[in-house]
């Protein structure tokens, strides 16, 4: 029974990584850049929910919607201000800019919200489910997280396969210049990608903080890196890859902290990543792209 | 191209993860919040350079009492800005209250006490600078520093000068071990572990299975944990689950709690700071696990954590030398004066500082040192006196005595959180 509850905790953590990894993977797949500020957008989104509930007394649903709107706008602004001027620059420059934006957001949060941790309210207010005569306790938030993650993934897949905007994204990801010649508005498509990625970040933030109840300016930093790892693990650029990578990462992390050592959990997670990348450099679901010379 | 990008990305990821390891441990006396300090020190560096220029005038932000000729010059050092500001400010203010009381009552052996407090932003380097600037001012006795890592740096300096130093709250044994001249008012970290195990076994009685969750990346937590586990063994407490976390994994405690639950622990010992403790309490509630939680002095502060639902902390016990609602006359007097002057309920560090000043007073009285002595001579005499002295009537413990190292021996008080406030257990 204890194995099942460790597994469920792992899946729940993995689902959060997966939602965040979707943000990384979409942006990478379409704009071919690593948005390291993603984790910090999550943190900003969580602060929006925190203050909306605690200071303005808004109902949780409204607060979460507000947070999605704020994060979406933030994502678009970051893209327009920091990344768009560098569209033709070397990928290294964009990478450094992304790290810069990440620190900018962290330090702005330090300035405005202070360094002390806040205790995040239980925004979802779901009760714990008791199974097998009380031996198996599953927090409602955990189930909610898993369900939300699956829904988001399915919606994203449908969006990309079935809609015009989704097809435009695919086209831009294949070949930016050719897509432009075919009449795809590349800038608008990339902005849309950032908007969706950042909106997902807001949802991931709410789920992350509802699960772990702590919020400070560094809340997004480490989960952000883990989510990036998950995206690479699953094959960066691939949506099902991000989903599977996230889940596996969460499960590995929780099981190794349960059965091996809680101190070694992170070391094991990253060791697994290294092994996977050595065996399969493109990740689990990654496509092999021929080098164009 | 893609491969290159990958290796770049991996390198970037590693470096970001290195950096992010620094963040996140908000205000606590031993853990350093480097990232926040950096920003705070950037803010204050301008001010401090101004202060250095205006060397002779008393600095504006710091409390100070000038004693004139024939006074004892007592300096204080601690963080009054930055992440650990709450500790330093409490020490500064409480020290001032004690100094004022003593001066109003006629001083020590007829001499007044002069007092000046300098900010160190919880940074070892700034702390040593503060020490030097206090020495220029004429400091003869040091009450400080407040936090551990700066204190280790300053103790090395004061030891070279053989200046008498008493720290209210730097609890590591590193502070006192190699330094003859340094004494503590607070418990050393190992001492807290032993005292907690004793209290659980002897006073709480019907507890036989305990679990421990500690932060293996933090010296403070590790130190208390080690001695607790040893003493629990001696006292016949069964430690059914002993789990750790690190600064990188301090948000998810579900596996640690599940292990405690599986082992049917009746009490979970948390030798950690209140930020992490608050998460543990919340997650335990989500799991439907309700043991007794038992904390140490790092737990102090949980009730004022922003957004924290204090009902979660109901029934949490902690061993702390000071509780602001104790009904003895001295504590009442100190708390009401502090509230009147600074509008806040003083924390444990403040109480330690208040006692520290009175300990200095008693040591001066018993040793008969005079203000015209050299720092070295005064230091040696005071240290000798301290080792044979008993300090009665402190607000952080009865009859304090010091061992050869300078560690204090006193009885801790246990408090329990009831209706969102601390209440004395006995």
Task: Compose a concise summary of this entry.
Chain A has helices spanning 2-31, 38-54, 60-83, 91-113, 140-162, 164-174, 176-181, 186-212, 221-234, 239-259, 265-279; strands spanning 118-119, 129-131, 136-138, 214-215.
Please name the defining characteristics of this protein.
heterodimer, A: mainly alpha, globular, B: Rossmann fold, 2 domains, seven-stranded mixed beta sheet, six-stranded mixed beta sheet, 13 helices
How does this model look, in words?
The complex is a heterodimer of chains A (293) and B (426). Chain A has 293 residues and is mostly helical. Chain A has one domain (14-220). Chain A is 72% helix and 3% strand. Chain A has helices spanning 2-31, 38-54, 60-83, 91-113, 140-162, 164-174, 176-181, 186-212, 221-234, 239-259, 265-279; strands at residues 118-119, 129-131, 136-138, 214-215. Chain A has a two-stranded antiparallel ribbon. In chain A, a hairpin with a 4-residue loop joins strand 2 (129-131) and strand 3. The termini of chain A are far apart. In chain B, helix 3 (85-104) packs parallel to helix 12, helix 7 (189-204) runs parallel beside helix 8 and helix 12 packs across helix 13. Residues 17-61 of chain B have low confidence and may be disordered. At the A-B interface, helix 1, helix 4, strand 1, strand 4 and helix 9 of A face helix 1, helix 2, strand 8, helix 9 and helix 10 of B.
């Amino acid at each position: 029974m204890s194995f099942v509850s460790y597994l469920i905790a792992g899946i729940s953590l993995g689902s959060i990584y997966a939602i965040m990894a979707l943000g990384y993977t979409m942006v990478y797949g379409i704009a071919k850049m690593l948005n390291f500020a993603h984790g910090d957008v999550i943190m900003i989104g969580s602060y929006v929910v925190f203050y909306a509930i605690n200071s303005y007394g808004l109902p949780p649903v409204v607060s979460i919607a507000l947070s999605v709107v704020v994060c979406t706008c933030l994502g678009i602004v970051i893209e327009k201000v920091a990344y768009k001027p560098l569209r033709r620059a070397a990928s290294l420059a964009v990478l450094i800019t992304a790290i810069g934006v990440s620190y900018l957001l962290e330090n702005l949060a330090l300035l405005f919200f202070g360094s002390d941790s806040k205790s995040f309210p239980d925004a979802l207010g779901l009760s714990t489910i008791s199974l097998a005569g009380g031996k198996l306790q599953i927090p409602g938030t955990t189930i909610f997280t898993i369900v939300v993650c699956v829904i988001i993934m399915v919606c994203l897949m449908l969006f990309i396969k079935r809609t015009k905007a989704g097809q435009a994204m695919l086209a831009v990801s294949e070949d930016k210049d050719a897509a432009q010649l075919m009449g795809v508005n590349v800038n608008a498509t990339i902005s849309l990608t950032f908007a969706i990625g950042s909106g997902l970040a807001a949802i991931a933030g709410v789920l992350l903080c509802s699960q772990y109840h702590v919020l400070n300016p560094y809340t997004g930093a480490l989960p952000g890196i883990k989510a990036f790892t998950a995206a690479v693990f699953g094959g960066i650029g691939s949506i099902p890859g991000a989903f599977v990578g996230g889940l596996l990462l969460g499960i590995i992390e929780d099981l190794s902290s349960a059965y091996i050592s809680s101190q070694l959990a992170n070391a094991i997670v990253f060791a697994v990543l290294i092994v996977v990348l050595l065996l399969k450099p493109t990740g689990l679901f990654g496509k092999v792209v021929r080098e164009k010379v | 191209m893609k491969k290159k990008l990958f290796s770049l990305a991996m390198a970037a990821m590693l470096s970001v993860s290195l950096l992010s390891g620094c963040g996140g441990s908000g205000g606590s006396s031993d853990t350093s919040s480097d990232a926040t300090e950096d920003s705070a020190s950037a803010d204050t560096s301008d001010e401090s350079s101004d202060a250095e220029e205006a060397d002779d005038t008393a600095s504006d932000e710091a409390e100070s009492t000038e004693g004139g000729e024939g006074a004892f010059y007592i300096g204080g050092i601690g963080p009054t800005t930055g992440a650990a500001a709450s500790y330093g400010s409490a020490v500064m203010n409480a020290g001032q209250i004690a100094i004022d009381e003593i001066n109003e009552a006629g001083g020590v052996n007829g001499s007044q006490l002069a007092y000046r407090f300098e900010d160190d932003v919880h940074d070892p380097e700034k702390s040593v600078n503060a020490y030097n600037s206090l020495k220029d001012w004429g400091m003869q006795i040091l009450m400080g520093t407040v936090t551990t890592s700066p204190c280790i740096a300053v103790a090395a300096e004061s030891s070279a000068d053989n200046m008498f130093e008493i720290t209210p709250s730097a609890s590591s044994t590193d502070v006192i071990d190699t330094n003859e001249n340094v004494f503590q008012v607070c418990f050393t970290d190992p001492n807290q572990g032993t005292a907690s195990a004793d209290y659980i076994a002897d006073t709480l009685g019907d507890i036989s299975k305990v679990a421990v969750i500690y932060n293996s990346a933090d010296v403070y937590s590790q130190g208390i944990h080690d001695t607790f586990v040893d003493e629990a063994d001696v006292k016949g407490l069964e430690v059914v689950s002993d789990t750790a976390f690190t600064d990188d994994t301090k948000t998810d405690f579900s596996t640690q709690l599940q292990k405690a639950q599986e082992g049917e622990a009746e009490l979970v010992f948390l030798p950690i700071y209140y930020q992490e403790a608050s998460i543990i309490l919340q997650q335990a509630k989500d799991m439907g696990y309700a043991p007794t939680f038992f904390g140490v002095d790092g737990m102090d502060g949980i009730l004022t954590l922003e957004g924290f639902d204090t009902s979660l902390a109901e029934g949490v016990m902690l061993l702390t030398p000071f509780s602001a609602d104790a009904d003895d006359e001295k504590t009442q007097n100190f708390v009401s004066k502090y509230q009147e002057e600074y509008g806040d309920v003083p924390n444990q560090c403040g109480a330690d500082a208040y006692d520290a000043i009175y300990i200095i007073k008693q040591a001066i009285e018993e040793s008969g040192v005079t203000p015209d002595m050299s720092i070295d001579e005064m230091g040696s005499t005071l240290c000798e006196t301290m080792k044979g002295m008993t300090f009665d009537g402190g607000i952080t413990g009865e009859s304090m005595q010091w061992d050869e190292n300078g560690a204090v021996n006193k009885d801790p008080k246990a408090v329990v959180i009831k209706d969102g406030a601390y209440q004395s257990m006995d």
